[in-house]
Specification:
alpha/beta; six-stranded parallel sheet; Rossmann fold; globular
Length: 148
Amino acid sequence: MNAMTTIRRRDWLRATPLTIGGIVARLRPVRAAGGIVITTVVKIGGVNWFDRMAEGVKKFGTENSDTTVEPIGPPSADAALQVQMLENLIAKHVQAVCVAPNSSENLEPVLKRARARKIVVIDHEASNLKNVDYDVEAFDNAVYAEHL
């Protein structure tokens, strides 16, 4: 996929089947070979927002027996730690990563390497990232600003 797909909250119900279908289609050969590994890298581990996200990630893994999921995050909001985590995931040959970056600029090069290795990259809270396949945003900033 050459173009990034952006999903905003108002489009979520309509876009979710397309997004999931796109990810599954890209991972179909892996699924046939014995399973999919998806890791979610959050900004910081141990905070309520991302702990709640981890519950949903784990639920997805439980409901999809051919998928191994792992939510991870650095102990502090440190972009360098996120970069190292992503480098390790590339070395492990995971099939997909979801990331909520501490620093878009610091993550761009490692996300580019992940995509070059055919790893599906999904971002959250970083609509300015370029090296992603899917961008999931809760808000459309321009529309939100109109209401201020």
